[in-house]
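Lab notebook, bench 4. Still working through the backlog of constructs that have no structural model yet. Next entry is a single chain of 491 residues. Request: give me the structure tokens for it.
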Amino acid sequence: MEGNTGGVRVVSRRVIRPELPPEHETTVHLTPWDLPLLTAEYIQKGVLLPKPPTGGEHLVEHLASSFARALGRFYPFAGRLAVAEVEDGASPPSSISVFLRCNDEGAEFVHATAPDVAVADIAASLYIPRVVWSFFPLTGLLPAVAAADSLPVLAAQVTELSDGVFIAMSLNHVVGDGTNFWEFMNTWSEISRSRSKLDISPSPPPPSPSPPLVVKRWFLDTCPVPIPLPFAKLEHIIPRRDHPPPPLQECFFAFSAESIRKLKAKANGEIAGAAATISSLQALLAHVWRSVSRAHGLAPRQETAYVLVIGCRGRVSGISPGYVGNAVVPGAVRLTAGEVMERGLGWTAWQLNRFVASLDEAAMRGAIAPWPRAPEFANFAKAAGGTAVHTGSSPRFDVFGNDFGWGRPASVRSGGANKFDGKVTVYEGPGGAGSMSLEVCLAPAALGKLVADEEFMGAVTTPSINRNFGQAFYAITTNWTLNEACKDMKG
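Model written out:
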């Protein structure tokens, strides 16, 4: 027994090296899309699976072997970030560069158990129990620290529950983005399923050929390679946290395809004649923005922002579908709370639509051009102000196709990394065909108001919700007694 966190016991921990890695280059220089994330915690996502026919070491060894095979394809994830002094007379003194060394040192693989946690404790609960955060490895680790200490850039954890399995990964955000994360998970599950003696699920259709990986990063012609960072030590970029983080709570909301269609139709109906078509995702995010603004109790003249991350694949020439590395541009739509709450779903969604449309290739190139001259780094502590909503991930990522050989996932959850008041993670819905799910992280009082908001919850189709749950949850977060809250739920 290595340790016990919230009922989660770590059984073993090891480093797994890639099986059959191809011949590859050893140094990958990093871009203005990668380097700002040196101060962002690892990407943490995982899938909740039914109980396999065989557990224990047999299950773990099978998954470890499949993981090694997936690493053979995604060999950069078995490398390490490294730091070097810049030897260039044109660079400021005491400059450093950070790069990825593809040295096949391996990724971390953890086996854990949580015998007191059941699948229903997670999948059937609107509120996300904090024990979920213990299903993820490398929590709290910053890429800057991983680079300085030569720590793994990828880790996986297999946690056996009382009646299921949670398979989670943590990926250094400098090394890859959400697209790369789910491509690796899809590859791992496909290999596990194809090699599995555990297989009890119907045979899936043959996978479509994967595009070749493009490991070499893409740079503007005017960008120096490597990019010198004007610091003597990498630790100097890590933001200070003078106060402990405020309390947070999370809920998981499911939206059926029919519910999404209704939101989209409503949004487009409200802006008829605006020469724009609101997408399903834009309609859902506008619904969230309006609801979270009400939950935060923002004053009408108070500025609020919706921060989006727009993918560059398919928008910027030179970024191929198999590109490994970050290929996203963040940006914000800024309005007053009064505009968001009073001008309607359609108008709010239209503002998101206009922003996305404005990010063409020229805008994306322009957004990164100044970065090498004035580098800035992610600081999510600044985001925790309660006036903005930040959405990451994508409903296009294949989450529920990750059948490792004994059944599709029951649900998906993220870890504790990069969590703050206003963080919203979007996933495809378990029903597919246009359904979506949201993981919403807010201050407890604001989340209670959101769950009690009839307009917001009217679009939610999570099966475990009953009409009185929102009122009871709000009661708990506003200092009613637990007994009073339970009476409300029973009523």
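Notes after review: The first strand starts at residue 3 and ends at 5. The longest helix spans residues 56-73. Flag for follow-up if needed.
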